[in-house]
Amino acid sequence: DNAEHMYFFSELALTLNEAEERVAPTDSRLRPDQRLMESGRWDEANVEKQRVEEKQRAVRRRREAEAVEALEEGKDYEGYIPLWFERKVDSVTGELMCVYKGGYWEAKDKQDWSMCPDIF
């Protein structure tokens, strides 16, 4: 019903980006530029998007510099380690996949997001 007014998205698709309380501060639904865009504040959203992306680039550059420094010093460098997932090889297909390793729901129950990086 009313699909022509909803860009022909299904009801499910329309609800996927709805804000939810008590989620990790890294949840993509909390992107400040996205929230501004959804409220029709296009110019502010664009400025915010540029800020968030530059912040991400700075983190990437820092990690790359740390990796080079570790290599020069003969040290191991782990790099970025996802909080909630780990990379594993699928035993059937041999493809690399990400598997939930736990912790998110426990952190959500406790509302303890101290381990989350400040990505926005």
From TrEMBL:
Signal peptide: none annotated. Coiled coil: none annotated. One of its GO terms (molecular function) is cholesterol binding. SUPFAM superfamilies: Oxysterol-binding protein-like (SSF144000). InterPro entries: OSBP_sf, Oxysterol-bd. GO terms for cellular component: cytosol; perinuclear endoplasmic reticulum; plasma membrane. PANTHER family: OXYSTEROL-BINDING PROTEIN 2 (PTHR10972:SF194), OXYSTEROL-BINDING PROTEIN-RELATED (PTHR10972). This is OSBP2 protein. It comes from Urocolius indicus. The gene is Osbp2.
